[in-house]
Design a protein that fits this description.
By secondary structure, this protein is an alpha+beta fold. Helix content is 49%, strand content 19%. Strand 8 and strand 9 (172-182) form a beta hairpin. The two termini are 37 Å apart.
Length: 795
């Protein structure tokens, strides 16, 4: 029996090639997109789960209360690990992880690399595998474990084990032997281990001024492994005993408590922590944006599948009638149509997987921080997802057409009384739903494109395009480089700073109206504001020979003046004093507002203070030039090689701050335009089937109207009437939903964005109308022009 069903199904599908092509095309594209987006979702959700004991492993974070609101802090005190390991019985092990940028030498080659200082049992808590050497190398102070990438940079394809490298740290040189090479980590690991691992005991040799028991010393992360994950709350309560020591040593940042974040969840929370120094996963807004786009595309393809299945079944009405007359049961008809639809779905699945294999590399190129792999045999979760996906598609797309088409009565079929699709509200809802989704997707792509352009062209409050930033190490590097660069006539100014706008920010707090006020803190040298193009709107800049870091002078931005409730005017602002960092500072100037962070959410202009810092604290040298920056950068690099030959040059353009925004908006644009194009394509297919159904249903009516003298234009208007109504409903609801969703979504993503206006909505609707007219115009016109004899010859 099954063999007969399959034979009939194959014959019918071969006879209806357009039907097969339309359904398979739409569904295979949707399946491919869903597979890729599922892989991305799984990649994000499974962050850090490569470690066997991830359920028992937690990061210790702190909570800081600012203006009455709790805020997570990612760093932890240096001595905390040793104490809790000894004092808290529920803790199986505790380890530290602290990264420093160091100069690493291999022969005459010099590299700037990250060196992670960790406790000896770090590789026992975390399951990082080695391709060479032993994990015990971390316990040997004379050995170092390097990443696979570092091994390639240092030694090319040669074995790295046993070879020597030198680390230049804090002005001294230390020799180490390579005791191990790490395998490459999955890209969803929060640890970015393109770095060297070395015992934290060597940290105190590299930096002897660091006191290992000083609670004012910080590490990037403290991790604990519990005997039982259920003891999490108990451990958090016991950690409260260390708050007095923490807060006595850090009065500027008193903790309200410690808490534990399981490492797979921490992977998504790190980005929201103050001083969260680890790599974070894909933002939740991006993750769910991609998920929702895939769901919308799948819905569109399912709508099309249902419509085309019903539309092309019109050719089989007599087959259905004859089957029923000769005793065929409705259940047999349902089974026949279900098998045909399932064969189409399975065909679409195979083609969809092939398309997904092609889309994965493109997705990886677009999202450079993601590396997806389509592995059907080794990924059981993916297989389970595909099974569930196919069941959902079959339930939504195959069952209804089979039941609907098999419901016709033979007497109505042979009398020609079957009202095929007439009054079927479900089909109308599907078509209107297609229009809604398409209008929304077009509108979203336009709005994101507009805001992306706005982000890259808006005023940053400083001159972002005329500066080169060079990381340095203190006063000695600054003086060497400045003395040489000052001879270059293309360089208009040079300044040093401890912090750098957009790349290295700090904060300070002071009490105001019985609340703690947090402000951004820019610590600079003379001429920095002029070099960066930050205007002084009132008062004066710091003057060389008059002001220094001991004079306790202060410049504040316009936003801080507003937040403090001060009025403009030299008598009301200039000369006022603020208690900051255990001393009173006098306001000598007001700077124009500037963006010290990226323009995404959290990058709002915040109140800021600007103070002088001693040259020994300089970590950046900033060069300003009105000439070609590429040429100037080459000159700076040459001078660097002459005066600081032992350290690699790592200068960059200040405009890199906006390049990060451009890259992110590029990704958003490409994803949204892709979704919009696919939506338009699927909607065009849906419109074609709608008109085909309408023409088939009214073919004899068209012939009679033409015999009675109806014009082609009047028939075209008649056939398009229902379609136009559904298009209007879809345009209105799509525009309304698009406006509400985008207004909410833009507020989540951007700190500053354009207000929504009418023209993107109008353009979205107009584009859909043009596509609709192009898609169905010829079909309707040809149907209206056909000779009425051809329509009525069977009567």
């Amino acid at each position: 029996m099954l063999k007969n069903y399959i034979k009939v199904a194959v014959r019918n599908l071969i006879r209806n090639k357009p039907y097969v092509f339309i359904n398979v095309l739409g569904l295979s594209v949707a399946i491919a997109i869903c597979v890729v987006i599922y892989l991305n979702y799984s990649h994000s959700v499974d962050s850090n789960r490569e470690h066997e004991n991830y359920r028992e492993t937690f990061k210790v974070n702190g909570t800081w209360i600012l203006n009455g609101d709790p805020e997570g802090v990612g760093i932890a005190p240096m001595p905390l690990t040793t104490m809790i390991k000894n004092d808290i019985g529920a803790i199986k092990d505790a380890v530290r992880y602290h990264v420093k940028g160091e100069v690493v030498k291999r022969g005459d080659d010099v590299f700037r690399e990250d060196v992670a200082y960790v406790d000896d049992t770090f590789l026992e808590v975390f399951d990082f595998s080695l391709r060479e050497g032993s994990k015990d190398a971390i316990k040997n102070p004379g050995q170092i474990i390097i990443s696979r990438q570092m091994a390639i940079r240092f030694f090319n394809d040669e074995p790295a084990l046993g070879k020597e490298i030198r680390i230049l740290s804090n002005g001294k040189e230390f020799l180490y032997t390579v005791g191990g090479v790490l395998n490459e980590l999955p890209t969803n690991s929060t640890f970015d281990l393109d770095a060297a691992l070395i015992s934290i005991e060597t940290y105190f040799n590299h930096y002897p001024e660091t006191e290992r028991n000083n609670w004012a010393e910080w590490v990037d992360g403290v991790f604990v492994q519990l005997h039982n994950a259920a003891d999490k709350e108990l451990v958090e309560q016991q950690l409260a005993a260390y708050l007095p020591q923490q807060n006595d040593a850090n009065e500027q940042m008193p903790y309200a408590g410690f808490y534990l974040d399981r490492i797979d969840e921490w992977a998504h929370n790190e980005k929201y922590l103050r001083y969260g120094n680890f790599r974070s996963g894909m933002a939740s807004s991006a993750l769910w944006g991609l998920n929702s786009s895939a769901i919308l595309i799948l819905l569109l393809s399912c709508f099309n599948f249902t419509n085309t299945s019903i539309s092309f079944s019109n050719r089989r009405l007599k087959e259905i009638g004859i089957r029923k007359v000769f005793g065929g049961m409705r259940s047999q008809l349902i089974t026949q149509f279900l098998i045909e639809n399932l064969m189409l779905i399975l065909t679409a699945l195979v083609i969809g997987l092939v398309l997904a294999e092609m889309l994965v590399p493109a997705f990886n190129d677009l999202f450079w921080f993601v590396r997806l792999e389509l592995d059907l045999l080794g990924n059981f979760k993916l297989l389970a997802f595909l099974i569930v996906l196919m069941l959902l598609v079959a339930a939504f797309s195959a069952i209804y057409p089979a039941i609907y088409v098999s419901s016709f009565k033979p007497v109505n079929i042979f009398q020609g009384n079957v009202k095929f699709g007439s009054g079927n509200m479900f089909l109308r809802v599907l078509i209107a739903g297609q229009f809604i989704i398409t209008v929304y997707n077009i509108f979203a792509s336009i709005v994101f494109y507009q805001n992306g352009k706005y982000q890259t062209t808006m005023d940053q409050g400083y001159d972002i395009h005329q500066s080169i930033v060079v990381p340095i190490d203190g006063e000695r590097d600054f003086i060497k480089l400045k003395n040489n660069l000052s001879q270059n006539p293309e360089i208009s100014s040079i300044a040093g700073s401890r912090t750098q706008i957009a790349f290295s920010t700090d904060f300070a707090t002071f009490e105001h109206k019985e609340n703690e006020q947090e402000v951004g803190w820019l610590q600079i040298g003379h001429d920095y504001l002029r070099t960066m193009g930050i205007d002084i709107v009132q008062g004066r800049d710091f003057e060389d020979g008059v002001d220094n870091y001991l004079s306790k002078k202060l410049i504040i931005n316009e936003q801080l003046v507003k937040d403090l409730g001060w009025e403009y005017g030299e008598e009301t602002v200039l000369g006022r004093r603020l208690f900051l960092d255990s001393a009173y500072y006098t306001v000598v100037g007001i700077a124009r507002n500037f963006h010290e962070k990226l323009l995404f959410k959290g990058g709002d202009i915040r109140p800021a203070i600007i103070t002088l810092t001693p040259p020994e604290n300089f970590r950046y040298l900033t060069v300003r030039s009105e000439s070609d920056l590429t040429r100037v950068n080459d000159k700076v690099k040459e001078q660097w090689a002459q005066v600081i030959p032992d350290i690699p040059y790592t200068g960059y353009y200040q405009s890199r701050a906006i390049e990060v925004v451009e890259d992110t908006n590029y990704i958003i644009d490409r994803v949204n335009w892709f979704v919009a194009v696919i939506s338009i394509m699927l909607s065009a297919i849906g419109l074609y089937t709608l008109v085909s159904l309408n023409v088939i249903k009214r073919i004899k009516e068209i012939g009679i109207r033409k015999v009675l003298g109806a014009s082609v234009l009047s028939i075209v208007q008649l056939l398009n009437r229902n379609f136009a109504g559904l298009l209007l409903i879809g345009a209105v609801l799509g525009s309304f939903s698009g406006y509400l969703v985008m207004d909410w979504l833009l507020d989540i993503i951007y700190a500053y964005r354009l207000p929504l206006n009418l023209w993107p909505l109008l353009f979205s609707v107009l584009l859909l109308v043009v596509v609709a007219a192009t898609t169905v115009g010829a079909k309707v016109y040809n149907a209206a022009k056909v000779n009425p004899v051809d329509h009525l010859r069977n009567e």
